[in-house]
Structure formats: structure tokens, C-alpha cells
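Schema walk-through. Below, the input block comes first and the output block second. Nothing else is stored per chain. Lengths vary across the set, and this one has 96 residues.
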Amino acid sequence: MDRQLDFDKVLGEIQDYLSPEAGYWMERLLHTYVGNPVAGLYTQIEIIQRALDRRPEMVPDEVARLKENVKVASDNIVKVVRALAAAFSEPDDEQG
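--- output ---
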């Protein structure tokens, strides 16, 4: 579960296999329905961890591991969304 995505590899694959229209659609889909909820989970876990710190018997180590797994998943999702955006951007968009 803790494997990191290679951005350049994902970018190349997206450019090889998806049309620009499919890429834009997929970018919005992942951003809206995957990225935003995962970001919310990460924030929620931070809040839970602070609460657990007040009661050490409630397994803060497990919460820390869960937080790290959500962070890795979130980072991977961001890379996919960035790759989709970069795969079909106009040359002027990449400089700005």
C-alpha cells in the first residue's frame, strides 16, 4: 500500500492512452470525487489523533499508521491529477 507513483511514467502513459477530452474528464473526476474526500479524511485523522493524545490508551500508534496510509494515497491521487493536467495542457499553460 505504501508504493509511490512515478509522475513521469504516469504522465507518459496518460499521453499514450487517453485523448485530451478523456484526460480532462478523468482529472475532474479524480479531483472532485477522490482527492477531496481523501483530503477530508486526512484532516479528520489529525483531529482524531489530537483527541487520542489526551487518552494514550486509545492506540495512537494505530492512528499514526492510518494517517500515513491516507497521506500516501492522497499523494498518489495528486500525482495522477497533475499528470492528467500536464498531459494535455497547451505549451503556454506549462510556463504559467
